[in-house]
Structures are given as C-alpha cells and as structure tokens.
C-alpha cells in the first residue's frame, strides 16, 4: 500500500509543470465559457438553460490523455502486486450521483419460481430448491430456446459468466455493488412478450429478476450467487419497452416499464414547454426507469412533487393454483379510456395488453394518434402522483415523510420486484414562470432547522421547488474530489453524453484486472486540482466559512409563491442577524444571478456521493454510505455511541424539506465498517428514523 501511495505521489511530482500549464489553459477556457453570461444581469429564469460547452485545445486534450494513460499504468502496476493486502478489511462506498443506502434488498420469493429476489437465506429454502430441481430440470434446459422463440435470438444473452466487460456484464454487474450469474438475460420488445417470458420463466422454476437501467444502489437489480438458494435466476430486462405518450392534454403521461426519466423529461419539454415530468435533476443522466422509481423508491429532491408514486399501472402478479402451477395474472389499473378491462368483450381475442402494444408501436414508428384520456372509472380517478405529500411534509410530527418500506397504495408501489411492472401513468407538473436560487449559510444546525420549519415548510402552498442541505465536510470533499465530475455535468448537461461516460467508468471497473475498480477514481482524485473550483468564488467562500448550507430553489407559479417565500426568508434572516453579538456569525444569503451559476450549484450538489467514493480511493481509506429518514420534527445529527470508531470524515447531505439524509462516513483501513454501520443504524432507529429511505 505504501508503494501505491508513493507511486501516485511520484507521478504527481513529475507532472507538476504539466499540471500548472494545463490548469492555466483550463482556467482560460472556463473563464471564456462563463464570460458570455457576465453581461446578463437579469436573474435566472430557470434552471434548465442550455449548458455551456467545454472546449479544449487538441494539444491540451492529448496531454491529459497521455498523462491519464501513464498514471493508469503506474497505478495499475503498483496496485496489482498488493491488491489482496489493500482490500483486506476495506469497504468502499458505492459512489453514484445520489448517495444512498448500503443495505441489501430483502425480497420475498416463492419456491419454484419467485419474483424479485434471487436469493433466500435459510437452509430450508435451499433444501426445498434442491428437492424441486429434478422437477424443473427439463423446463430449465428448454427455457432459453423458448425465450428465443418469443423475443428473437438477438435479445437473449448468456448469463452464466459474470464480469469481464462482455455483452452480458452490464446486466450482471450492479452500478454500485453486486455481481452474479444468471441462466440468461432476456429483453422483451413488447408488453405481450414480457408477459409470455414471465410465464415461461416461472414455469421453469427460476427466479425472475426484473431490471430497468440497472442503476440501483443496493445490488438488488443483479443476481447474487453467494447464498444457499441454488435456483437459477433469469434477468428480465425491460429497457426495450421504452415507449411513452401523453394523455389528458399533457397533464399525464403513460410510460412503458423501460422508459427512462431523462428520456421522458426531454419528451415532455418538447411536447409541452409549460409542463415538466417528475424527475429533471439528480441522477437523470443515468436514465433510470420510471417503473424503478415506483417499485424501489425515487429521490426526494422535489419538495412540491414528492417521491414517485402512482396507483395507475399495468403489472403482473404470480400466484399458485391448487395444482401447484405458477399462474401469471395481469392486473390493470391504468384507468385510460380504451385500455380498461371493461372495454373488451370476453373471448374476443383483444385485451389491454394487445391494444397498449399497438399504441406503443405507432408511437415508436412516428404515427400520430388522437391523444388518450383518463376514464371515469375508479382507476381513472386514482392518484398518479403523491398529491397529498405537500400537506404531509409540512406537519411537524414524529412520523417520517417517506421510506422504502412504505407500500401505501396499489401493489406496484415499493414492490421491489414482487410484481413485474409493465406500464404506469404519471402526472406532469407546471413549469415555474420564473425562479430564484439561493445559497444560504448558517452558523449552526439549530438555526438551519429553524429555517426549514419557519420558511421552507411554512405552508403547503408556498413550498420551494427544492431545498438541499450540505454540511462542511460535504463541501470540502466535493471540492477536493468532485470538481471534474461537476464540471462535466455543468458543461455537458445531464443527457446522453454523461450517461455514456458513466457507462465507460462502470465498464472499466468490471475489467478483469485487479486494479480496475480503483483506476477511474484514482485518476479523478489525482487530476482534481488541475481544474478550477466547481462553483463561483462567492459560493465557495461561504462554503468554507460556514458549516451548514442550504441550496434553495424557489419558483413562481402565478399565485405569488415566490414573493411570499422571499419575504419570509428576509424576515427570518433579519431577526436572526439582529440577535448576533459583535464578531458572531450571521446567516448569509448569496443568490445565483445567471443560469450558468444555477447549473454549477446543481452539479456541485449532485456529485456528492460520487466525490465521496473518489475521496476514499484517493486517500486510501474506506467508507460506508447510508440513507435514512428522520422524523419531520427532528433533524439533529444522530450521535455516534462511545463504542464507535472515530471517523475520518462524516459527510451529511440531505433532501432537507423531507428530512431524508444521505450520510457517507470515512474510516481508516482496518475498521470493521459493518459494525459501524449497524451502530449508526441502531442510533437512527432509536431517534425514530427509518432506513433505507431511498432506492
């Protein structure tokens, strides 16, 4: 390990002159890119302005590429020899653009063909699986050929070899953790194909693993082969089912299970410029699916919108009849006129699945059809978003705002693979007429919590668009390890290019080399200080001088919301600052004055988890990541017990409005991180918190 650190230091010293020259070049580039906004003194109209484009001279780009290759070679050589030693008693955080829970999914499944879970943890389950294996042997041997007949040979992949960077690795390796083998991977191209594939899989006694974009944070979206359950798993990848179309004059949208949230956001923006989809920030460049947000829990950036939920869906449930056969039942609560079960006569050969497929095919091929509308049935009147969330989050009670195990509503909500979602209906939301973004810094956490109660959550009508919290450790770690990622998101946007770069990073980490999992983060850490700070100086100065910060976005929706919020904020700041003694710290408010500054602040916040992993790898330490919901009337930092190890860094950032906290804790090598994780989990639960609180 020592030689690894020395090798990294030696490379950095040798490349110091190159670093200075490149940083100067990059600084000029970023300065010229930002200058186009300096003449515009108007306040930002919104956070979706077109991103600046980063342009590098060919010589500079070539220099960085060569330096990266050299750095990778030397780092790889040094790490390869001591890989076992380095990873002894080491746990790395599973860094992604939205830090989340490190607890594994604990799904239930049925013997002989279950949904969702790929494993059970009891000897009884293993014995039952072993007894039933001969019964399903022939069906399993024929399963692959049956699936090929349904979807075509090009959409069935061998899953018996894990890793290696091959065609199947993206289905078998989790974005954060988890890796395993499967009997096969199948990608249905229609809803009907998905139902038929599901029936064949459960008839063969295999475990079904529904998968969207495989961006899950807990490893539940990939097979796990490290438990006594010996039943083979089949990955049912839904990504080809990506069609989506509006209904109700654009107030709602129907999404097949593979529709990505980034794809949906772009479509809604182009179809209805005054409307927007649920998820337009955060990890959108990973393009997780809308169905995954419903099944596993979405992020909580949007205080006004709440988490992704819907009671309007088309999904499959598996049950057993009296003869012990697995029966797939399609449940239809879409509530769309022409797609209700009552719209079809018995034995007519038509059903909602076939008609939805026909509509989706027309959409993909560019044919125009009359826009659909909700029916007047109970399903058509059901919720397609968490419309009660604004009222609930403003109540200062002992309850938490949201958590993963909250299965309120239709079975598709937080189902975690226990049912297979085929399609969902979601609300769209009005785009604010204008918005303002503030970086607010506080002298202590108590004042920060008072701001949340008295200003942000004062009443359900005046909620901000978002309210994100960062502590001092978060600011320091993002600045030390997240500059490159933040600049990439800021200048390239959260679209396909960033998704492509993320895929490259994941593929590198799965290559069959001992040092591959660390390479990308080592390079990101090494070259971090070559580029300028990720946010303008006025924000970074506040970030370094205060310990608690809120990034607040407030919108005007035609009813005076913005002015009322700003009035409450100004009154709060005035009263607090009048009580401060001479020399004491006041509440500081710094406003973003251009779309460029808004983009920079959003990027800074949403690379937090990624930066933490890069920090741990760069510092040769280890870390854990958890997310938990604290009671709405709480929010203080859960105290670590006296028996706990002393962390190197304790990084806390949260969706402040709903009090859902992401906590990344760094420890020296050798610390039992599982023990520390359980200690922290116990403290959170003793304070009335629940975890996990996100996907």
TrEMBL record:
Residues 29-41 have a biased composition (Low complexity). Transmembrane segments: none annotated. Its cofactor is FAD. Keywords: FAD, Flavoprotein, Oxidoreductase. Residues 29-54, 85-106 are annotated as: Disordered. Pfam families: Lact-deh-memb. PROSITE patterns: FAD_PCMH. Residues 178-370 form the FAD-binding PCMH-type domain. GO terms for molecular function: oxidoreductase activity. Residues 85-94 have a biased composition (Basic and acidic residues). InterPro entries: FAD-bd_PCMH, FAD-bd_PCMH-like_sf, FAD-bd_PCMH_sub1, FAD-bd_PCMH_sub2, FAD-linked_Oxase-like_C, FAD-oxidored/transferase_4, Lactate_DH_C. This is FAD-binding PCMH-type domain-containing protein. It comes from Stephanodiscus triporus.
